[in-house]
Amino acid sequence: MTPAFALAGSLRGTEMPNRVGRFRASTMYAVVLTAAAALATACGGGGVADTGGGPTTPTDTTRPPTVQRASVTARVTIDPADASLAQQAGIGVDGLTVRLTSSRAGEPVRTAVTGADGTARFDNLLEGIYTASVDRALTAAELQRLPVGQREAAVFAGGGQVVLTPPASRDASIALVGARRGSVVISEIFGNYGPPGSGTNNYVYGSYLEVYNNGDTTAYLDGMLLLQASGLHSSVTSIGGPSCDQSPNSARLDSTAVYTGTIIAFPGSGQDYPIRPGEAKVMAMDAVNHMVAAPEKEQVDLSRAQFEQFWTDGDVDNPESVNMVRVYGTTAGVFGRGLPYFSGSLQHVLLSRAARPFVTPVDVPYCGASGCTPRTSARVPSEYILDLMALEYSPLTPGYAVSEAQYPRCVPWTSPFYDRAPAPLVSTIQRKAIARRSLGRTADGREILQRTRNSARDLELAEPLRRSLNK
Predict the structure, then answer these.
(1) Which has the minimum average pLDDT: 61-70, 74-83, 110-119, 305-314?
(2) Fewest beta carbons less than 10 Å away: which of 98, 226, 335, 371?
(3) 360 beta partners
(4) Taking residues 131-149, what's their average pLDDT?
(5) Which domain of life is it from (predicted)?
């Protein structure tokens, strides 16, 4: 029997060689990914057929076992928040190239072009996590139709993820927002990673966070706040661990505030620490050369970091690195510093200096097998967010399976109000930084970073410190 595949009237995907691509920023699309069940079932059987009275005759046992496959349909729509802007530019949803990448090693990058209804279909897919992305650059004529203040949004783009578990159908509606360059952004983070393949052989002291001036004028870091939050990525009850509902869900998906156990601030009284357009600054957990301190861990040299965390602890202070200021802290962490020592942090946030008077301690319930207990966290109103990275564990991380049947994924930690999809990049098996993608360069060579408030699309794995200390 020939395998049968259901057609939905959309375009089929074509395959391209797998490669890492850079995507440009966006003004908002919504990509709806629909996994339509389309099973390839081969006829025939194995084993021995009993004829009743005569000798047994073996059947053909050379056929491979049946492999279940499914389809992903990408449905592209313009987000209502940018409908007016798209209308002014004259942008539609037809004729757009959709790229589909798989979390499975060795899988090709597939492409398809949307039809008049904005859909593109990819058939014959194996189980895994798939990411669809679209980008559409505006022409010079289209840009001229936009208001002057909106012309930095030179690309309409978007992307989203779906977990495909054939034969089950899955829908994932992801509203994407447009690129607004902003001013100071989080450009890169590096966590407690060990050598490739090291698994749990991690080194927490060499972590850092990098900020970058993505705007056109000099900004000042003085008083800006940094925070992080961590939570469950997957329910691990199948191996005796907690479930998604045993995480502080009252802090999840809150569109009015962000929550954390630690907040630190850049020092200064107003204009002491300028950051020029196209310039990056590094805040280190410990500003030393970690290549010397731990040569077997394949770490980085942070001895020239502009800022470091230093409290009254046993570590030696680096006089060349300016010490950060602790604003709020209930988490001890490495050296008692708290931030950013944990690669599993699922949310990193940069806040305006104006947020400091509004940092409010609140009790957030944390639940476990023995019940729920309140834990004090800091709550900061969302209007003070300057930039945010939303993360989740890579499917290649040891201990985190792709199969959602075994490890159901939790609701994303970050509200889509801030970021539409977390980037599945957190891993302990490779020495890579999590960095913001490049949109391109200005005429004078200054790099513009991608910021669409969609971390799954905006972030990538990269060599550490390429925009700052190793530039």
Answers:
(1) 61-70
(2) 371
(3) 379
(4) 80
(5) Bacteria
CATH number (2.70.98, 3.40.50, 3.90.70, 2.60.40) of 14-41+67-175 reads 2.60.40
DSSP code of 313? S
Residue with tokens 């925009």: 467
In the structure encoding, which two tokens stand for residue 394, read together? 């890579």
Q: What mean pLDDT is predicted for residues 147-163?
A: 73
Q: How far apart are CA 428 and CA 396, in angstroms?
A: 9
**Residues 102, 391, 71, CA angle at the centre, nearest 5°?**
25
Q: Are strands 208-213 and 184-190 parallel, antiparallel or unpaired?
A: antiparallel
DSSP one-letter string for 395-418: TTSTT--S-TTTSPBPPPSS-TTT
> Terminus-to-terminus CA distance in the chain, angstroms?
59
What is this structure's pTM? 0.67
The whole-number pLDDT of residue 111 equals 92
CA–CA separation, 113 and 98 (whole Å): 6
Domain residue spans of the chain? 14-41+67-175, 184-462
* DSSP secondary structure letters along 171-199: EEEEE-------SEEEEEEE-S--STT-T
Query: How far is residue 302's CA from residue 287's CA, in Å, rounded to a whole number?
Result: 5
Q: Where are the alpha helices (DSSP H) in 31-182?
A: 83-89, 140-145
